[in-house]
Amino acid sequence: MSDQNMNLLDHLDELRKRIMIILGAFIVFFIASFIFVKDIYDWIVKDLDMQLTVLGPMDIIYVYLMLAGVVALALTVPVIILQIWLFVRPALTDRERKLTLGYIPASLILFLAGLSFGYFIVLPLVLNFLFGLGGDMFTMMFTTDKYFQFVLRMTIPFSILFEMPLVVMFLTSLGIVTPKAMAKNRKYAFFFIVVISVLISPPDFISDVLVIIPLLFLYEVSIVLSKIVYRRKLKRERQENQE
C-alpha cells in the first residue's frame, strides 16, 4: 500500500474517532436531558399563562424526545467545535493554531448570546403580539409540539446570526473579505438586515427596532474587527516579505 493511501486511511481513522466522540457526547447529554426533561419543560413554559395541550398519547413521547434532543445538541456544540479543531490541528501552523483556538470560546459565547437574545427578548415580543392579535376573537390553545417548534424558530436563527463577527474575522484572515468591501456594501447589508428583522419580528415599530438595532450593531462590530484582522494580516505579510 502506498504512503498516500496510508495517509488517507489515517485521516479517515482520525475522522471516525472524532465522529464517535461527538456521537458519544450527544448520547450522554441526551440521556441526561431525558432524565430531567420534565424540569426542562417546566422551565420553558413557566411564563406561559396557559397550559399546553397534546392531541394524542404519542405526542407526549415526541415532545420529550424533541426537548431532550435539542438540549443535547446545544450541549454538544462545544464538543463538536473542539473535535473539528483537533481534527484540523495537525495541518495548521503554530500561528494558525493559536488563531483558530481563540475562535472556539468566542463562537460558543456568541452562540449563547444569540440564543438568549431570541429567547428572552424576541420570543416574548412575538408572543405578546400574537396574544394581542388574537384577543377576544379566538380561544387560545397551543399544542405542545407546535409551541416548541415556534420557540426554536424564534431562537436558533439568532444564535446563527450572532456568529457574524466571528465569521467575518475568519474570512478576513483568509483574504476573502475586506473591511473596505464591507463598508462599501453597508447600505445593502443594512437593507438585508432590516428585511430579515421585519420578517421575523411582530409588525409593530418598537419590536422591529428592538430586533434591528442589535443586528446593525453586530454588523458595525464586524467591520471594526475586520479592520483589526486585516491590518495584522498586512503587517504580517510585510514582515514575511522583508525576511
UniProtKB/TrEMBL annotation:
InterPro entries: TatC. GO terms for molecular function: proton motive force dependent protein transmembrane transporter activity. It holds the Pfam family TatC. It is found in: Cell membrane; Membrane. It is a multi-pass membrane protein. The keyword Cell membrane applies. Belongs to the TatC family. Part of the twin-arginine translocation (Tat) system that transports large folded proteins containing a characteristic twin-arginine motif in their signal peptide across membranes. This is Sec-independent protein translocase protein TatC. It comes from Anaerobacillus arseniciselenatis. The lineage of its organism: Bacteria, Bacillati, Bacillota, Bacilli, Bacillales. The gene is tatC.
